[in-house]
């Protein structure tokens, strides 16, 4: 009889690992925002089949539009790309480098995105678990699945570097 080695730690995280490639695309978008002097947040909207429907990065400074957050822009572009006046993003996944704020969480709920995957927590304005949890609020008619912490260190490092440089 052999001794039980106890729990085996598997460094592979199948839940988060499958979102690394789209998160890399979101990080590229965030990099574009940083180069333009915007807060470096990037988003990628994936269709039900996993294909990229739309991307976005913060454009508030460039457009003078306070709603030009990465998530809102990706959602708008994705809905336009569907055509035929469709606005429901059922089956879609939104991958974003930073936890969505209340405005973006509201847009996610209203657009019926099925899943939100994000990297870094936003302890000052996050609405997907850190400060508020709008996305999982049972009082709402739509609650997407939320997966947090995908490439969190990389996402947070980009934001930290940007704000240190200001």
Report on this model:
The protein has 166 residues and is of the alpha/beta class. The chain contains six helices and five strands, in the order H-H-E-E-H-H-E-H-E-E-H. About 4% of the residues have low confidence.
Name a few traits of the molecule:
alpha/beta, 5-stranded mixed β-sheet, about 35% helix, about 170 residues
Condensed summary:
The protein is α/β, with parallel strands linked by helices and 166 residues long. It has 6 helices and 5 strands.
**Unreliable sequence segments:** 4-10
Strand order in the sheet with the most strands: 2-1-3-4-5
Q: Mean pLDDT across all residues, rounded?
A: 92
Q: What is the share of helical residues?
A: 25-40%
From the helix content, strand content and strand pairing, which structural class follows?
A: alpha/beta
Number of strands: 5
As a percent range, the share of strand residues is: 15-25%
Rounded radius of gyration (Å): 17 Å
Number of helices, counting only DSSP H or I runs of 4 residues or more:
6
Order of helices and strands: HHEEHHEHEEH
Shape: globular
In this structure, how is the largest beta sheet organized?
Answer: 5 strands, mixed
> Could you tell me how far the N terminus lies from the C terminus, measured between alpha carbons in angstroms?
62 Å
